[in-house]
Prior knowledge:
Elements: H1 3-16, H2 22-33, H3 38-46, H4 51-83, H5 106-119, E1 124-125, E2 131-133, H6 134-137, E3 166-168, H7 173-182, E4 187-196, E5 208-218, H8 223-237, E6 243-250, E7 253-262, H9 268-273, E8 279-288, H10 290-295, E9 304-311, H11 312-320, H12 333-336
Parallel strand pairs: 1-4
Antiparallel strand pairs: 2-3, 4-5, 5-9, 6-7, 7-8, 8-9
Phenylalanine (PHE) binds near residues 213, 253, 286 and 308.
Amino acid sequence: MSMLERIEDLKNKSADFKIESKEMLENFRLKFLSKKGEINDLFESFKQVAGEEKREIGKQLNVLRQSIEAKFNESKEKFSSEKKFPADAADLSLPTNANTIGSLHPISLVKNSIINIFEKIGFDVEYGPEIEDDWHNFTALNFGENHPARDMQDTFFVEKEPRGNFALRTHTSSVQVRLMETVKPPIRALMPGRVYRNEDVSARSNCFFHQIEGLYIDENVSFSDLKQTLYYFVSQFFGEREIRFRPSYFPFTEPSAEMDIYLGMETEQDSRLTKGTGWLEILGCGMVDPSVLKNCGIDPDKYSGFAFGMGIDRIAMLKYGIKDIRQMFENDIRFLEQF
Ligand code: PHE
């Protein structure tokens, strides 16, 4: 073959060579471009070419080498760019999004701080079921079958008429009963939980809310222990504030009282919350009625005790200035992330 024929031949061979993988690319390089490759062979032979042909053959040889190099570089780029991520892939070199850390719900915050305060004076935390039977929610707590106080708490019954035995608990006092039935005094417990009442839903009241109840049963527990315990609680939770006890009625405590704290009327909100009196009702309380002790198998001649219960939602609204109780359960992140 003449030099020109060999050049033509190599031109065709290199053009036909398919490069479809990195391996083929390397084979291409070895075959045509390496030291022992065919281009070099040709350049070796070129040394023998006679003077008058040198110009033309040298030119063609250079053109061929450039086209083979161009093909090589083009494929090389293709395979090295294939290694990169596709254009729409995540850019792993970007800084990460700031972690958004959730926060506790205002109800949990208030509940936890109440628990912390009472834990310091020896109260345990106890829980009970939200679907409760008549005995634990009413009967054991002295709500006789036709007791008018049953109407004070609009109950959601689980079964329809004729009314079955089960209802959504209307207060956490049911947990008192469960505890007294199973644990021997002394009992010192806090019982937080969700309760349900069939009330009109408004900014001030919801058909479910949260209570936290306290119970202390031992020998010689008196009303002054109750008062002192609540004074301690108020001073820890609200700071030094005036409080007052008003006589009240609950079927399961005797005597019963409601405790108010003095907010004053300096701000418009305070006078609205206190309906122009400066006083805000915070909780109900009283000495556990001896017949309730008896219902739960505790000897009322030996033991006495007090109970108190408060609404967590109301306190959370007071503490954080929340104007509408419903906001707390709409799961709007803009509301919740403020706490
Ligand atoms: N269970 C009462 C209520 O829901 C509150 C209360 C608890 C009162 C304990 C006295 C003692 O209204």
